[in-house]
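Researcher: Here's the sequence for the chain we discussed earlier.
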Amino acid sequence: MTLPIAGQAGLITGAGSGIGAAIAEVLAREGCRLTLVDKRLEGVAAVTESIRANGGQASDLAGDVRDYAAMEAAVAATIARYGQLDLLVACAGIAEAGAIADADPQLYRDVVLTNVVGVMNGVRAALPPMLARGSGHVVVIASVSGRVTYTGESAYVASKHAAVAFADCLRQVVAAAGIRVSLIEPGIVETPLIHVYPDALDLGPGVVPLEPMDVARAVRYVLEQPANVNVAEVVLRPTAQVL
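Model: Thanks. This is the structure I predict for it:
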């Protein structure tokens, strides 16, 4: 039997577009009560408006995952509004492209801060209330780029390897407390990120990218498992993607 997720309170970062917005739509449809966070308020406000128009429950906040205080505020707002925090989906991410010798130091710093420290900030803010309740689920949206290497976006690849490692360390630490941790590692997905790196589709000629909804369904799957089942890792690639 799957675990009903209706009524659960969740926080989703990077929810203003792409995969994060799709996850928000799917979980709201299942009855989750959501706080949606994104750096750009206009994008996440539109997602919230769409969810509410379809009968779902969501509120939105402008917040940068690189700022720990912003993540603390998002967790506090979720608990104040819904009375609890059951799940965190850490989805915010950015990418870069170019040769290492020509890389912009500020850009690769931002990639690492967003994709690694941003995940850590969200987890650090969410863990205390989850530990206090003895339950919770953390979902980290990583990437196949966290399992393989290639050239052209080295900081992004490195950041996703770090996110994968952090999530597995987290799983080991919190398992005994009844908190589940799931890694979702998509291959090429049709989002603005794949257009940051112009050669992304060349990594798999003939590949038809996944859609954000494909990833969102994987998130729903891991959340719906019985409380004694932790789907620790899901890797999903377009069928023709080899790397």
